[in-house]
Design brief:
Layout: H1 5-13, H2 17-26, H3 38-52, H4 60-69, H5 73-85, H6 95-103, H7 108-125, H8 130-139, H9 143-151, H10 162-172, H11 178-192, H12 196-205, H13 210-216
């Protein structure tokens, strides 16, 4: 779209083929890269928004999906960070768009940001959406949606809904998928910084994979 032309030109002008090749290998060849380091990319984004402004609220997801369609992975990082700027203005119907993003070009580097930043903010704005959405995602059989159910509370600290967390882990604890087992350990490890006693008691009564248990108990 026209709005993004200056950003695309700026990103391409600062491309680093050598680093792009390393980034592609690191991501197991799943995506193309321009080779922009995070610091440089964010600086270019800042200059772009300073010059062109942020999109209007009504155009937000049009811009986000336009970025998502571009081949270089840096554009998806830009899209997630743009959503983060609007996280307090998300509308209740936006969960449909967020789910589509989770399911498109899925890998941990995009899903984790969407889960912890965007879903996390969305469910705080619309707590009435938590139960039905997480139930649907858990039952979907898609491990990226399931991972998002675990990680959206990653930054909640003392606002963590432990009943929900326990139910999600209880339904997923015997999954063989690495990204689920890792996420279970990660969310428990993170919550142990806030409530180590709860995590200690939980892992004592809940069967977990070796990976999940090791990650969960790292700080306790």
């Amino acid at each position: 779209m026209e709005y993004l032309v200056p950003l695309i030109s700026s990103f391409k002008a600062h491309a680093n083929p050598e680093k792009a090749n390393w980034m592609k290998q690191y991501m197991k060849g799943k995506f193309e890269f321009l080779g922009l380091e995070t610091k440089i990319r964010r600086s270019l984004q800042k200059d772009f928004y300073k010059s062109e402004g942020y999109p209007a609220q009504d155009d937000l997801f049009q811009v986000v999906f336009s970025l998502w369609k571009l081949p270089a992975r840096e554009y998806q990082y830009c899209a997630v960070e743009l959503l983060q700027k609007f996280q307090k203005k998300l509308e209740v119907s936006d969960i449909i768009h967020i789910e589509k993003l989770i399911l498109t070009k899925s890998w941990w580097d995009s899903v984790d940001g969407l889960a912890s930043w965007i879903c996390g903010a969305y469910f705080q704005l619309y707590p009435e959406q938590v139960e039905k959405t997480t139930t649907a995602w858990i039952q979907s059989g898609n491990f990226w949606l399931q991972r998002s159910c675990l990680l959206f509370q990653l930054k909640y600290k003392d606002k963590t809904d432990t009943d929900l967390l326990e139910r999600c882990i209880g339904q997923l604890h015997d999954e063989k998928e690495f990204f689920i087992r890792k996420a279970i350990g990660w969310i428990l490890r993170e919550y142990s910084k806030t409530n180590p006693d709860w995590v200690r008691n939980f892992v004592a009564r809940q069967q977990l994979s070796t990976l999940s248990y090791r990650e969960a108990t790292k700080y306790i």
